[in-house]
Amino acid sequence: MTETLTAVEALFQEAAKLARETLERNADRDHPVVHHLEPEELKRTIELELPRSPRGVEAALEAARKTLHYSVATGHPRFLNQLFGGSDAPAVLGEWISALTNTSMYTFEAAPVGTVVELAILERLAEYVGWKDAEGVLAPGGSIANLMAVLCARHARFPHVKREGLRAEDRPVMFVSAEAHYSLARAAMVCGIGLDGCVEVPVDEVGRMRPEALERAIAEAKAAGRTPFLVAATVGTTVPGAFDPVGAIAEIARRDGLWLHVDGSYGGSVLFSRRHRGLVDGVELADSVAWNPHKMMGVPLACAALLVREPRTLVATLGMNADYLFHEDGSDDWNLGDRSLQCGRRVDALKLWFSWQVVGDEGYEQRIDTLFEQAGRFRKLIQEREGFRLVREQEGTNVCFRYLPPTHRDASGEKRDRAEHEATLSIRDAMAREGSFLVNYATLDGAATFRLVASNPLTSDEDLAALLDRIEA
Question: Which residues have a Cβ under 8 Å from the Cβ of 246 and sit 6 or more positions away?
Protein backbone atom coordinates (compact mmCIF):
# COMPACT_ATOMS: atom_id res chain seq x y z
CA MET A 1 0.00 0.00 0.00
CA THR A 2 2.83 2.38 0.90
CA GLU A 3 4.59 1.67 -2.38
CA THR A 4 1.36 2.45 -4.29
CA LEU A 5 0.91 5.75 -2.46
CA THR A 6 4.53 6.67 -3.11
CA ALA A 7 4.09 5.99 -6.83
CA VAL A 8 0.91 8.10 -6.95
CA GLU A 9 2.61 10.92 -5.06
CA ALA A 10 5.55 10.85 -7.48
CA LEU A 11 3.13 10.83 -10.43
CA PHE A 12 1.33 13.96 -9.30
CA GLN A 13 4.53 15.75 -8.35
CA GLU A 14 5.82 15.17 -11.86
CA ALA A 15 2.44 16.19 -13.29
CA ALA A 16 2.64 19.49 -11.40
CA LYS A 17 6.10 20.04 -12.85
CA LEU A 18 4.82 19.36 -16.37
CA ALA A 19 1.95 21.80 -15.83
CA ARG A 20 4.35 24.52 -14.68
CA GLU A 21 6.68 23.95 -17.63
CA THR A 22 3.73 24.07 -20.04
CA LEU A 23 2.49 27.38 -18.65
CA GLU A 24 6.02 28.78 -18.86
CA ARG A 25 6.33 27.69 -22.50
CA ASN A 26 2.98 29.30 -23.27
CA ALA A 27 4.47 32.64 -22.26
CA ASP A 28 7.68 32.16 -24.29
CA ARG A 29 7.55 33.83 -27.72
CA ASP A 30 10.66 31.89 -28.78
CA HIS A 31 8.74 28.64 -28.32
CA PRO A 32 6.65 27.66 -31.35
CA VAL A 33 2.87 27.52 -31.18
CA VAL A 34 3.08 23.96 -32.51
CA HIS A 35 5.76 21.43 -33.46
CA HIS A 36 4.14 20.42 -36.72
CA LEU A 37 4.38 16.81 -37.92
CA GLU A 38 2.35 15.10 -40.61
CA PRO A 39 -0.10 12.48 -39.27
CA GLU A 40 1.93 9.36 -40.13
CA GLU A 41 5.13 10.88 -38.75
CA LEU A 42 3.32 11.91 -35.58
CA LYS A 43 1.96 8.37 -35.13
CA ARG A 44 5.50 6.96 -35.32
CA THR A 45 6.97 9.62 -33.04
CA ILE A 46 4.58 9.29 -30.13
CA GLU A 47 4.52 5.45 -30.36
CA LEU A 48 0.85 4.54 -30.26
CA GLU A 49 1.34 0.81 -29.67
CA LEU A 50 -0.62 -0.41 -26.63
CA PRO A 51 1.37 -2.86 -24.47
CA ARG A 52 0.18 -6.29 -23.43
CA SER A 53 2.17 -6.16 -20.19
CA PRO A 54 2.15 -3.26 -17.70
CA ARG A 55 4.84 -0.64 -18.22
CA GLY A 56 4.35 1.35 -15.02
CA VAL A 57 3.79 4.98 -14.16
CA GLU A 58 6.80 6.23 -16.10
CA ALA A 59 5.13 5.15 -19.34
CA ALA A 60 2.19 7.43 -18.58
CA LEU A 61 4.53 10.31 -17.79
CA GLU A 62 6.45 9.78 -21.02
CA ALA A 63 3.16 9.79 -22.93
CA ALA A 64 2.21 13.03 -21.14
CA ARG A 65 5.51 14.67 -22.12
CA LYS A 66 5.07 13.76 -25.77
CA THR A 67 1.43 14.87 -25.74
CA LEU A 68 2.36 18.28 -24.38
CA HIS A 69 5.32 18.66 -26.75
CA TYR A 70 3.35 17.97 -29.93
CA SER A 71 0.03 19.55 -28.96
CA VAL A 72 -0.94 23.03 -30.12
CA ALA A 73 -0.05 25.57 -27.42
CA THR A 74 -3.47 27.23 -27.25
CA GLY A 75 -2.30 29.33 -24.30
CA HIS A 76 0.47 30.89 -26.43
CA PRO A 77 0.00 34.61 -27.20
CA ARG A 78 0.52 33.82 -30.89
CA PHE A 79 -2.26 31.23 -31.02
CA LEU A 80 -4.91 33.31 -32.81
CA ASN A 81 -6.69 30.49 -34.58
CA GLN A 82 -9.95 29.68 -32.80
CA LEU A 83 -12.57 31.42 -30.68
CA PHE A 84 -10.69 30.51 -27.50
CA GLY A 85 -7.20 30.98 -26.13
CA GLY A 86 -5.04 31.72 -23.14
CA SER A 87 -4.51 29.78 -19.92
CA ASP A 88 -6.48 29.76 -16.67
CA ALA A 89 -4.60 27.91 -13.93
CA PRO A 90 -7.44 27.91 -11.33
CA ALA A 91 -9.80 26.48 -13.95
CA VAL A 92 -7.24 23.76 -14.77
CA LEU A 93 -7.30 22.91 -11.06
CA GLY A 94 -11.08 22.59 -11.35
CA GLU A 95 -10.62 20.14 -14.24
CA TRP A 96 -8.21 18.10 -12.14
CA ILE A 97 -10.62 18.00 -9.21
CA SER A 98 -13.42 16.91 -11.55
CA ALA A 99 -11.30 13.98 -12.75
CA LEU A 100 -10.20 13.17 -9.21
CA THR A 101 -13.77 12.99 -7.89
CA ASN A 102 -14.84 11.09 -11.05
CA THR A 103 -18.57 11.53 -10.65
CA SER A 104 -21.46 12.21 -13.00
CA MET A 105 -23.94 15.07 -13.01
CA TYR A 106 -27.29 13.29 -13.06
CA THR A 107 -28.37 13.37 -9.40
CA PHE A 108 -27.58 15.34 -6.28
CA GLU A 109 -26.87 12.02 -4.58
CA ALA A 110 -24.05 11.25 -7.05
CA ALA A 111 -22.69 14.79 -7.37
CA PRO A 112 -23.74 16.95 -4.40
CA VAL A 113 -21.06 19.65 -4.75
CA GLY A 114 -21.20 19.69 -8.54
CA THR A 115 -24.98 20.09 -8.45
CA VAL A 116 -25.13 23.08 -6.13
CA VAL A 117 -22.18 24.73 -7.90
CA GLU A 118 -23.72 24.28 -11.35
CA LEU A 119 -27.07 25.66 -10.21
CA ALA A 120 -25.40 28.69 -8.62
CA ILE A 121 -23.41 29.40 -11.80
CA LEU A 122 -26.47 29.02 -14.02
CA GLU A 123 -28.39 31.42 -11.80
CA ARG A 124 -25.67 34.06 -12.14
CA LEU A 125 -25.40 33.64 -15.91
CA ALA A 126 -29.19 33.96 -16.19
CA GLU A 127 -29.09 37.16 -14.13
CA TYR A 128 -26.65 38.63 -16.66
CA VAL A 129 -29.12 37.75 -19.42
CA GLY A 130 -31.81 39.55 -17.40
CA TRP A 131 -33.79 36.60 -16.06
CA LYS A 132 -34.82 35.38 -12.63
CA ASP A 133 -36.05 31.86 -11.82
CA ALA A 134 -34.83 30.55 -15.17
CA GLU A 135 -33.72 27.02 -15.98
CA GLY A 136 -30.42 25.84 -17.38
CA VAL A 137 -27.81 23.14 -17.71
CA LEU A 138 -24.15 22.90 -18.68
CA ALA A 139 -23.46 21.19 -22.00
CA PRO A 140 -20.31 19.84 -23.70
CA GLY A 141 -20.28 22.74 -26.16
CA GLY A 142 -22.36 25.33 -27.97
CA SER A 143 -23.43 22.82 -30.63
CA ILE A 144 -25.21 20.64 -28.05
CA ALA A 145 -26.65 23.72 -26.35
CA ASN A 146 -28.08 24.83 -29.70
CA LEU A 147 -29.48 21.36 -30.34
CA MET A 148 -31.24 21.32 -26.97
CA ALA A 149 -32.68 24.77 -27.69
CA VAL A 150 -34.14 23.55 -31.00
CA LEU A 151 -35.60 20.54 -29.18
CA CYS A 152 -37.21 22.85 -26.61
CA ALA A 153 -38.67 25.04 -29.36
CA ARG A 154 -39.98 22.01 -31.22
CA HIS A 155 -41.59 20.66 -28.03
CA ALA A 156 -43.23 24.03 -27.32
CA ARG A 157 -44.82 24.18 -30.79
CA PHE A 158 -45.36 20.45 -31.39
CA PRO A 159 -45.70 18.79 -27.95
CA HIS A 160 -46.98 15.57 -29.51
CA VAL A 161 -43.56 14.94 -31.06
CA LYS A 162 -42.09 13.60 -27.84
CA ARG A 163 -44.34 10.52 -28.02
CA GLU A 164 -45.63 10.34 -31.59
CA GLY A 165 -42.92 11.98 -33.68
CA LEU A 166 -43.63 14.58 -36.32
CA ARG A 167 -46.94 14.37 -38.18
CA ALA A 168 -47.19 14.91 -41.92
CA GLU A 169 -49.16 18.12 -41.43
CA ASP A 170 -46.63 19.66 -39.02
CA ARG A 171 -44.12 20.79 -41.67
CA PRO A 172 -41.90 22.75 -39.23
CA VAL A 173 -39.48 25.41 -40.44
CA MET A 174 -36.86 27.41 -38.54
CA PHE A 175 -34.86 30.53 -39.45
CA VAL A 176 -31.18 31.30 -38.92
CA SER A 177 -28.70 33.85 -40.15
CA ALA A 178 -26.99 32.98 -43.43
CA GLU A 179 -23.75 33.11 -41.43
CA ALA A 180 -24.99 31.26 -38.35
CA HIS A 181 -22.95 28.39 -36.94
CA TYR A 182 -23.47 25.13 -38.81
CA SER A 183 -24.62 23.44 -35.60
CA LEU A 184 -28.04 25.06 -36.02
CA ALA A 185 -28.55 23.50 -39.45
CA ARG A 186 -27.30 20.20 -38.06
CA ALA A 187 -29.77 20.52 -35.18
CA ALA A 188 -32.55 20.86 -37.77
CA MET A 189 -31.31 17.66 -39.38
CA VAL A 190 -31.09 15.78 -36.06
CA CYS A 191 -34.53 16.99 -34.94
CA GLY A 192 -36.24 15.68 -38.06
CA ILE A 193 -36.86 19.13 -39.52
CA GLY A 194 -34.32 18.60 -42.29
CA LEU A 195 -31.84 20.95 -43.87
CA ASP A 196 -34.55 22.27 -46.19
CA GLY A 197 -36.52 23.21 -43.08
CA CYS A 198 -33.68 25.46 -41.88
CA VAL A 199 -34.04 28.72 -43.81
CA GLU A 200 -30.97 30.96 -44.04
CA VAL A 201 -31.86 34.64 -43.75
CA PRO A 202 -29.66 37.14 -45.68
CA VAL A 203 -27.24 39.37 -43.77
CA ASP A 204 -26.12 42.98 -44.13
CA GLU A 205 -22.67 44.32 -44.99
CA VAL A 206 -21.38 43.54 -41.48
CA GLY A 207 -22.85 40.03 -41.35
CA ARG A 208 -25.95 40.74 -39.22
CA MET A 209 -29.31 39.14 -39.97
CA ARG A 210 -31.63 41.54 -41.81
CA PRO A 211 -34.94 41.83 -39.90
CA GLU A 212 -36.88 42.76 -43.04
CA ALA A 213 -35.49 39.66 -44.78
CA LEU A 214 -36.59 37.56 -41.81
CA GLU A 215 -40.14 38.91 -42.12
CA ARG A 216 -40.19 38.02 -45.83
CA ALA A 217 -38.84 34.52 -45.16
CA ILE A 218 -41.51 33.85 -42.52
CA ALA A 219 -44.27 35.07 -44.84
CA GLU A 220 -42.97 32.92 -47.70
CA ALA A 221 -42.80 29.85 -45.47
CA LYS A 222 -46.39 30.35 -44.30
CA ALA A 223 -47.56 30.82 -47.88
CA ALA A 224 -45.91 27.51 -48.76
CA GLY A 225 -47.86 25.72 -46.03
CA ARG A 226 -44.94 25.44 -43.59
CA THR A 227 -45.20 26.02 -39.82
CA PRO A 228 -42.58 28.50 -38.53
CA PHE A 229 -41.59 27.67 -34.96
CA LEU A 230 -38.10 29.09 -34.22
CA VAL A 231 -35.74 31.88 -35.15
CA ALA A 232 -32.13 31.79 -33.97
CA ALA A 233 -30.21 35.04 -33.64
CA THR A 234 -26.43 34.89 -33.37
CA VAL A 235 -24.40 37.23 -31.19
CA GLY A 236 -20.84 36.79 -32.35
CA THR A 237 -20.85 34.91 -35.65
CA THR A 238 -18.02 32.47 -36.23
CA VAL A 239 -16.17 34.19 -39.06
CA PRO A 240 -16.84 37.97 -39.06
CA GLY A 241 -17.92 38.11 -35.39
CA ALA A 242 -21.16 39.97 -36.18
CA PHE A 243 -23.98 40.55 -33.69
CA ASP A 244 -27.52 40.06 -35.00
CA PRO A 245 -30.02 42.79 -33.90
CA VAL A 246 -31.70 40.74 -31.17
CA GLY A 247 -34.26 43.38 -30.19
CA ALA A 248 -35.66 43.76 -33.72
CA ILE A 249 -35.66 39.99 -34.25
CA ALA A 250 -37.44 39.51 -30.91
CA GLU A 251 -40.29 41.77 -32.04
CA ILE A 252 -40.81 39.69 -35.17
CA ALA A 253 -40.57 36.41 -33.25
CA ARG A 254 -43.13 37.55 -30.69
CA ARG A 255 -45.54 38.80 -33.34
CA ASP A 256 -45.38 35.53 -35.28
CA GLY A 257 -45.36 33.25 -32.24
CA LEU A 258 -41.84 31.92 -32.82
CA TRP A 259 -39.43 30.68 -30.18
CA LEU A 260 -36.42 33.02 -30.06
CA HIS A 261 -33.09 31.36 -29.43
CA VAL A 262 -29.93 33.46 -29.09
CA ASP A 263 -26.73 31.63 -29.96
CA GLY A 264 -24.33 33.53 -27.74
CA SER A 265 -21.82 30.69 -27.70
CA TYR A 266 -19.13 33.17 -28.70
CA GLY A 267 -20.43 36.65 -27.97
CA GLY A 268 -22.60 36.04 -24.91
CA SER A 269 -19.73 36.99 -22.63
CA VAL A 270 -20.03 40.66 -23.67
CA LEU A 271 -22.83 40.73 -21.05
CA PHE A 272 -20.04 41.19 -18.49
CA SER A 273 -18.93 44.42 -20.19
CA ARG A 274 -20.78 47.64 -19.48
CA ARG A 275 -18.95 49.12 -22.46
CA HIS A 276 -19.99 46.49 -25.02
CA ARG A 277 -23.18 44.81 -23.77
CA GLY A 278 -25.20 47.09 -26.04
CA LEU A 279 -24.24 44.65 -28.81
CA VAL A 280 -26.73 42.17 -27.32
CA ASP A 281 -29.58 44.55 -26.47
CA GLY A 282 -32.83 42.59 -26.35
CA VAL A 283 -31.28 39.30 -25.23
CA GLU A 284 -33.62 39.28 -22.21
CA LEU A 285 -36.52 38.82 -24.65
CA ALA A 286 -35.20 35.45 -25.83
CA ASP A 287 -36.68 32.10 -24.85
CA SER A 288 -33.25 30.44 -24.70
CA VAL A 289 -29.60 31.46 -24.79
CA ALA A 290 -26.44 29.43 -25.47
CA TRP A 291 -23.30 30.80 -23.80
CA ASN A 292 -19.78 29.33 -23.80
CA PRO A 293 -17.50 30.48 -20.96
CA HIS A 294 -14.75 28.46 -22.67
CA LYS A 295 -14.50 31.14 -25.34
CA MET A 296 -14.16 34.83 -24.41
CA MET A 297 -14.01 34.09 -20.66
CA GLY A 298 -10.95 31.85 -21.12
CA VAL A 299 -12.22 28.81 -19.19
CA PRO A 300 -10.78 25.52 -20.54
CA LEU A 301 -12.85 23.44 -22.93
CA ALA A 302 -15.53 22.36 -22.59
CA CYS A 303 -17.71 24.71 -20.59
CA ALA A 304 -20.98 25.76 -22.20
CA ALA A 305 -24.41 26.63 -20.87
CA LEU A 306 -27.94 26.51 -22.21
CA LEU A 307 -30.23 28.91 -20.38
CA VAL A 308 -34.03 28.76 -20.79
CA ARG A 309 -36.31 31.57 -19.60
CA GLU A 310 -39.24 29.42 -18.49
CA PRO A 311 -38.47 26.90 -15.74
CA ARG A 312 -39.35 23.22 -16.28
CA THR A 313 -38.97 23.57 -20.07
CA LEU A 314 -35.86 21.39 -20.30
CA VAL A 315 -37.37 18.73 -18.06
CA ALA A 316 -40.61 18.69 -20.06
CA THR A 317 -38.67 18.40 -23.32
CA LEU A 318 -35.95 15.94 -22.39
CA GLY A 319 -37.03 14.23 -19.18
CA MET A 320 -37.31 10.41 -19.20
CA ASN A 321 -37.65 9.88 -15.42
CA ALA A 322 -35.44 6.79 -15.28
CA ASP A 323 -36.38 5.22 -11.95
CA TYR A 324 -32.94 3.66 -11.40
CA LEU A 325 -31.54 7.20 -11.16
CA PHE A 326 -34.40 9.43 -10.04
CA HIS A 327 -36.00 7.95 -6.95
CA GLU A 328 -39.25 9.06 -5.36
CA ASP A 329 -37.45 10.63 -2.42
CA GLY A 330 -35.48 12.91 -4.75
CA SER A 331 -36.37 16.38 -6.03
CA ASP A 332 -36.24 17.48 -9.65
CA ASP A 333 -34.96 20.82 -8.38
CA TRP A 334 -31.70 19.15 -7.35
CA ASN A 335 -31.44 16.30 -9.88
CA LEU A 336 -30.17 17.73 -13.17
CA GLY A 337 -30.11 14.58 -15.29
CA ASP A 338 -33.48 15.16 -16.93
CA ARG A 339 -32.41 18.63 -18.08
CA SER A 340 -29.71 17.19 -20.33
CA LEU A 341 -29.36 15.06 -23.45
CA GLN A 342 -26.64 13.16 -21.63
CA CYS A 343 -26.82 10.60 -18.87
CA GLY A 344 -23.16 10.50 -17.88
CA ARG A 345 -22.01 14.11 -17.71
CA ARG A 346 -18.77 15.64 -16.42
CA VAL A 347 -18.68 18.11 -13.56
CA ASP A 348 -17.78 21.03 -15.82
CA ALA A 349 -19.03 23.57 -13.28
CA LEU A 350 -15.94 23.35 -11.06
CA LYS A 351 -13.50 24.91 -13.52
CA LEU A 352 -15.78 27.92 -14.05
CA TRP A 353 -16.42 28.18 -10.31
CA PHE A 354 -12.70 28.09 -9.46
CA SER A 355 -11.93 30.63 -12.18
CA TRP A 356 -14.76 32.94 -11.06
CA GLN A 357 -13.50 32.82 -7.46
CA VAL A 358 -10.13 34.17 -8.58
CA VAL A 359 -11.22 36.56 -11.35
CA GLY A 360 -14.61 37.85 -10.21
CA ASP A 361 -17.14 39.72 -12.33
CA GLU A 362 -14.76 42.67 -12.60
CA GLY A 363 -11.97 40.48 -13.92
CA TYR A 364 -14.18 39.04 -16.64
CA GLU A 365 -15.31 42.53 -17.60
CA GLN A 366 -11.70 43.65 -17.86
CA ARG A 367 -10.84 40.60 -19.97
CA ILE A 368 -13.69 41.24 -22.43
CA ASP A 369 -12.80 44.93 -22.75
CA THR A 370 -9.14 44.04 -23.29
CA LEU A 371 -10.00 41.68 -26.14
CA PHE A 372 -12.12 44.33 -27.88
CA GLU A 373 -9.29 46.85 -27.49
CA GLN A 374 -6.79 44.34 -28.86
CA ALA A 375 -8.93 43.73 -31.96
CA GLY A 376 -9.33 47.48 -32.46
CA ARG A 377 -5.58 48.07 -32.31
CA PHE A 378 -4.95 45.27 -34.79
CA ARG A 379 -7.42 46.77 -37.26
CA LYS A 380 -5.53 50.05 -36.98
CA LEU A 381 -2.22 48.27 -37.69
CA ILE A 382 -3.75 46.70 -40.80
CA GLN A 383 -5.05 50.02 -42.07
CA GLU A 384 -1.56 51.53 -41.72
CA ARG A 385 0.20 48.84 -43.80
CA GLU A 386 0.36 48.77 -47.56
CA GLY A 387 -0.99 45.59 -49.11
CA PHE A 388 -3.32 44.75 -46.23
CA ARG A 389 -7.03 45.49 -46.11
CA LEU A 390 -9.90 44.75 -43.78
CA VAL A 391 -12.81 42.72 -45.12
CA ARG A 392 -16.17 44.21 -44.12
CA GLU A 393 -17.02 46.65 -41.40
CA GLN A 394 -16.32 44.86 -38.11
CA GLU A 395 -17.75 45.15 -34.60
CA GLY A 396 -16.59 42.18 -32.51
CA THR A 397 -13.24 40.65 -31.54
CA ASN A 398 -12.67 38.87 -34.85
CA VAL A 399 -10.53 40.63 -37.43
CA CYS A 400 -10.99 39.52 -41.05
CA PHE A 401 -8.34 40.75 -43.48
CA ARG A 402 -6.47 39.94 -46.67
CA TYR A 403 -2.98 40.57 -47.99
CA LEU A 404 -2.03 41.44 -51.55
CA PRO A 405 1.62 40.60 -52.41
CA PRO A 406 3.68 43.40 -54.05
CA THR A 407 3.75 41.59 -57.40
CA HIS A 408 -0.03 41.92 -57.64
CA ARG A 409 -0.53 45.45 -56.29
CA ASP A 410 -1.74 46.73 -59.68
CA ALA A 411 -4.53 44.14 -59.78
CA SER A 412 -8.15 45.06 -59.15
CA GLY A 413 -11.57 43.42 -59.05
CA GLU A 414 -11.61 39.67 -59.54
CA LYS A 415 -7.86 39.50 -60.22
CA ARG A 416 -7.11 41.19 -56.90
CA ASP A 417 -9.54 38.89 -55.07
CA ARG A 418 -7.92 35.84 -56.67
CA ALA A 419 -4.41 36.98 -55.75
CA GLU A 420 -5.48 37.64 -52.15
CA HIS A 421 -7.24 34.28 -52.02
CA GLU A 422 -4.14 32.37 -53.15
CA ALA A 423 -1.85 34.37 -50.87
CA THR A 424 -4.05 33.66 -47.85
CA LEU A 425 -3.97 29.90 -48.46
CA SER A 426 -0.24 29.61 -49.11
CA ILE A 427 0.94 32.00 -46.38
CA ARG A 428 -1.37 30.58 -43.73
CA ASP A 429 -0.21 27.03 -44.55
CA ALA A 430 3.47 28.02 -44.35
CA MET A 431 3.02 29.71 -40.95
CA ALA A 432 1.12 26.71 -39.56
CA ARG A 433 3.87 24.32 -40.68
CA GLU A 434 6.67 26.38 -39.19
CA GLY A 435 4.65 26.90 -36.00
CA SER A 436 5.38 30.62 -35.72
CA PHE A 437 1.72 31.68 -35.62
CA LEU A 438 -1.59 29.92 -35.86
CA VAL A 439 -4.20 32.15 -37.44
CA ASN A 440 -7.21 30.72 -39.21
CA TYR A 441 -8.84 31.52 -42.54
CA ALA A 442 -12.32 31.16 -43.96
CA THR A 443 -14.12 31.98 -47.17
CA LEU A 444 -15.80 35.35 -46.76
CA ASP A 445 -17.48 37.25 -49.58
CA GLY A 446 -16.16 34.77 -52.10
CA ALA A 447 -12.47 34.54 -51.21
CA ALA A 448 -10.22 33.05 -48.53
CA THR A 449 -9.71 35.56 -45.74
CA PHE A 450 -7.46 35.60 -42.71
CA ARG A 451 -9.50 35.53 -39.50
CA LEU A 452 -7.62 36.59 -36.38
CA VAL A 453 -9.44 36.02 -33.10
CA ALA A 454 -8.55 38.29 -30.19
CA SER A 455 -8.89 35.68 -27.44
CA ASN A 456 -5.78 35.97 -25.25
CA PRO A 457 -5.29 39.15 -23.21
CA LEU A 458 -1.52 38.48 -23.16
CA THR A 459 -1.24 38.89 -26.93
CA SER A 460 0.66 42.16 -27.30
CA ASP A 461 0.86 44.82 -29.99
CA GLU A 462 4.35 43.45 -30.72
CA ASP A 463 2.80 40.02 -31.38
CA LEU A 464 0.25 41.55 -33.73
CA ALA A 465 2.89 43.53 -35.61
CA ALA A 466 5.07 40.40 -35.80
CA LEU A 467 2.19 38.53 -37.41
CA LEU A 468 1.93 41.15 -40.16
CA ASP A 469 5.71 41.08 -40.57
CA ARG A 470 5.63 37.30 -40.97
CA ILE A 471 2.83 37.47 -43.54
CA GLU A 472 4.87 39.97 -45.55
CA ALA A 473 7.96 37.80 -45.25
Answer: 233, 235, 262, 280, 281, 282, 283, 285, 286
- In-domain check, residue 73: no
Phi, psi of 262 (to 5 degrees): -110, 115
Instruction: For residues 2 and 389, give the distance between their C-alpha atoms in angstroms, rounded to a whole number.
Output: 65
pLDDT at 1 over 60: no
Tens of pLDDT, residues 363-385: 999 999 999 999 999 999 999 99
Which amino acid is located at 151 in the chain? L
* Size (the chain), residues: 473
Residue 251 belongs to some domain of the structure: yes
CA pair distance 398, 382, nearest whole angstrom: 13
pLDDT digits (tens, 9 = 90+) for 210-245: 999 999 999 999 999 999 999 999 999 999 999 999
Residue numbers of the domain that contains 212: 97-356
Contacts of 98 (CB under 8 A, 6+ apart): 114, 346, 347, 348, 350, 351
Residue 440 lies in a domain: no
> How many C-beta neighbours within 10 Å does residue 45 have?
13
Q: Assign residue 344 the CATH number of its domain.
A: 3.40.640.10
Q: What is the pLDDT of residues 191-205, one digit of tens each?
A: 999 999 999 999 999
